[in-house]
């Protein structure tokens, strides 16, 4: 048997395995449609208990992944995301309990009305069906995303990064234990049997069985998924987020707000990456703000005018304006009024979160109306771009597209609806 | 120059033209974002006037299309859809006026709340951006779909069937006259310059400029678009719709309801295609119903039991259960109770509109909850599956997917939303 034949047989058997996963998920989704809220919440709480009960097994599985990753010489940031601890397991467990405590997103009457024809019409929330989640080697996403799918009555196929295969498997075992305890099919939450990277390609073509793909990760992953998928994708793109200090910005608010937006946590998608400052107020606002940022450990890159105001600012080049640093770096540019700020954001923004700092209601209204982003803010730190901070409970991420859901994606956003129509035998004239 | 070179040059220039269309549409969409409700409604009303004023030019353009189509020996049903008349032009014009009279789908506060952190959050409806509409040679869709896109503040690229090129162009001229009269960019509604079929392929790859593709037409068109598109698709699939006569069906309602559901108009996607009858009530309900259907001109195809009840019933084969006849044909099958009806619908239904005829509330609730379709009905003719009948005004069609919008797609469904967040300088702890 040639190597080629072996490879192609492996490919076939993987394709078959993925078909089976899809079929099982579809059938589990049907069971979830008729499950009760109590059952779904019980499954979530039982899964939380199982995570705590099996924490040693989970940590042992994680050590296997960590050893293999270290042996491959993986970068430290990668290892940080991969590593589990008792504390991280507890965060996953309490996360699932928090999801269980959220209001039921299903069976809600979203609207109800009567027509002159005698039709009584109700729009009612229902699950989407089967969701494919594709994410990097962050094993905790298995619990977070799996929990949200279950809460919203969806079956899920969870495909985490290959390097987290053992850890994710141990966590998935706990989720499935929760499902069984609540008498729900454990195929409601599944994953490919092997860490084979080709599984992703197969998953993206299972359009007979999967209703939605949610990729969660860096730009490369999202782009690959959007390009290859035959299934609708709810993309969570990067956040090239701006703070714009308008002429009517309150100096007392500007500095703490921008420092918080940039520096509170630099690695999250809601962090600010570019500061735009109205030329009229630059000389007043910018020097104290830049020195506070630098004191907080932030590298500053700016255009020539900004450099003239502060000689320690490094020159920014064209690429800087389009970069999501996810790091303690801020690009700074002066603009001539609101229109120029809007034009800069339209050109370089990623449609995630944009903020104007101003005390002038009219300028704020214009900014909020005209900036095309999921979240537009006045006098508010962009770091608030988060489902929890919006009061929506847990979230899978911030969707930057405009279809289906935009902004934080929690359990509510993972639902669809149907129309229920009743009458006393109405026929259409 | 070889034929090959000429072809490839044409292809390049078409690709370039489509890029230009996309760029112009994107820029028009930005202008629409800041347009007022009054402007958009004025454009719709002026377009209606232009249609009436230019009806002779439109009819002349339509005669060109009709002559060419006849010369190619096109089928009568196709010609019927292609042909315009004074009455059809008036229907388009008053359709646009009706859309103008609908409530504004934009700038609506969908939800508003305050967080303990001091954030005041509002979810507000906004346009999607640029919509690509792909449809067959029905020139009236140019006005209907264009009008809905404009109402909802979206730019649109309208690509109708090649055979309707002259008619659609004459109608688009009127829409653009309306835009100009309202001081809106006429590139808000555009179409490819030539009837070249390859334009569709290019359109489906313009993901930089187009946010949503709405295909409107038969199965072949929808499947091609779903397969090829690099842009999210809001698909309107066929309606393999069922009426299920439950044991507790009211005989006085059953016959008029099923006759209406099948025969009122057989060519619309809300028409019933299959009748399921509970075995327990078949002998009572079916004979009078079948003879009324036959009297109304309906061909009947059934399983052996149905044939035994009525010797004029033709045998149905497996393909019948999955067929959208769009014609005066009904397939009929007996089932053993609600579960078997649900299983049949899960297997053969297309997720469009499904109806149970019963006086028993529990059976109805089970049916409405468990059938996975955009519209589920009790004691109501499936022919009511229509945006107008739902009180939503005009519609592009009935979406059968679960993402973004499900069921009738009108102006409201062609919107997205954004979050507006205000605070007094809140920073995240």
From TrEMBL, chains A, B:
Q: Name one Pfam family in it.
A: Aldedh
- Give GO terms: molecular function aspect only: glutamate-5-semialdehyde dehydrogenase activity
- From the UniProt record, report the name of the gene that encodes this protein: proA
Q: Which residues form the Aldehyde dehydrogenase domain?
A: 13-296
Name-wise, this protein is Gamma-glutamyl phosphate reductase
Predominant location: cytoplasm
The beginning of the lineage is: Bacteria, Pseudomonadati, Pseudomonadota, Alphaproteobacteria, Rhodospirillales
In the UniProt record, does the keyword Transmembrane helix occur?
no
Query: Which pathway is this protein engaged in?
Result: Amino-acid biosynthesis; L-proline biosynthesis; L-glutamate 5-semialdehyde from L-glutamate: step 2/2
InterPro entries reported for this sequence: Ald_DH/histidinol_DH, Ald_DH_C, Ald_DH_N, Aldehyde_DH_dom, G-glutamylP_reductase_CS, Glu-5-SA_DH, GPR_dom
Similarity comment: family membership: Belongs to the gamma-glutamyl phosphate reductase family.
Role played = Catalyzes the NADPH-dependent reduction of L-glutamate 5-phosphate into L-glutamate 5-semialdehyde and phosphate. The product spontaneously undergoes cyclization to form 1-pyrroline-5-carboxylate.
Which EC number(s) does the record attach to this protein?
1.2.1.41
Q: List the CDD domains hit by this protein, alphabetically.
A: ALDH_F18-19_ProA-GPR
Q: Spell out the PROSITE patterns in the cross-references.
A: PROA
Query: What UniProt keywords are attached to this protein's entry?
Result: Amino-acid biosynthesis, Cytoplasm, NADP, Oxidoreductase, Proline biosynthesis
The subcellular location is: Cytoplasm
Which species is the source of this protein?
A: Fodinicurvata halophila
């Amino acid at each position: 048997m040639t190597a080629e034949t072996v490879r192609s047989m492996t490919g076939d058997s993987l394709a078959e395995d993925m078909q089976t996963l899809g079929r099982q998920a579809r059938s589990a989704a049907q069971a979830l449609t008729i499950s009760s809220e109590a059952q779904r919440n019980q499954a979530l709480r039982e899964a939380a208990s199982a995570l705590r009960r099996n924490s040693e097994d989970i940590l042992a599985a994680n050590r296997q992944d960590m050893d293999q990753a270290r042996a491959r010489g993986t970068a430290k940031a990668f290892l940080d995301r991969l590593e589990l601890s008792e504390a991280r397991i507890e965060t996953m467990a309490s996360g699932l309990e928090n999801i269980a405590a959220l209001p039921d997103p299903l069976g809600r009457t979203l609207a109800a009305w009567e027509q002159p024809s005698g039709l009584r019409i109700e729009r009612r929330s229902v699950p989407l069906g089967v969701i494919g989640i594709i994410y990097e080697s962050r094993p905790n996403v298995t619990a977070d995303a799996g929990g949200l799918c279950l809460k919203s009555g969806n079956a899920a196929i969870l495909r985490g990064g290959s390097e987290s295969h053992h850890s994710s498997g141990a966590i998935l075992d706990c989720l499935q234990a929760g499902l069984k305890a609540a008498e729900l099919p454990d195929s409601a939450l599944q994953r490919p049997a092997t860490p084979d990277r080709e599984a992703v390609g197969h998953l993206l073509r299972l359009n007979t069985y999967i209703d939605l793909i949610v990729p969660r990760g860096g730009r490369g992953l999202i782009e690959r998924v959007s390009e290859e998928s035959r299934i609708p994708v709810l993309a969570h793109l990067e956040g090239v987020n701006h703070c714009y200090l308008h002429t009517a910005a309150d100096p007392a608010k500007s500095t703490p707000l921008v420092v918080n937006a940039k520096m509170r946590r630099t690695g999250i998608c809601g962090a600010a990456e570019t500061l735009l400052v109205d030329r009229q107020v630059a000389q007043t606002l910018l020097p104290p703000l830049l020195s506070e940022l630098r004191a907080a450990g932030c590298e500053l890159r700016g255009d020539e005018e900004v450099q003239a105001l502060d000689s320690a600012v490094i020159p920014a080049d064209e690429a800087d304006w389009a970069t999501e640093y996810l790091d303690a770096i801020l690009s700074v540019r002066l603009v001539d009024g609101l229109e120029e700020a809007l034009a800069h954001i339209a050109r370089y923004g990623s449609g995630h979160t944009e903020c104007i700092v101003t005390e002038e209601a009219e300028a704020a209204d214009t900014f909020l109306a005209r900036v095309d982003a999921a979240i537009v803010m006045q006098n508010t730190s962009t770091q608030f771009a988060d489902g929890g901070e919006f009061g929506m409970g847990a979230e899978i991420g911030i969707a930057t597209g405009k279809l289906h859901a935009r902004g934080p994606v929690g359990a509510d956003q993972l639902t669809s609806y149907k129309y229920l129509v009743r009458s006393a035998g109405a026929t259409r004239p």
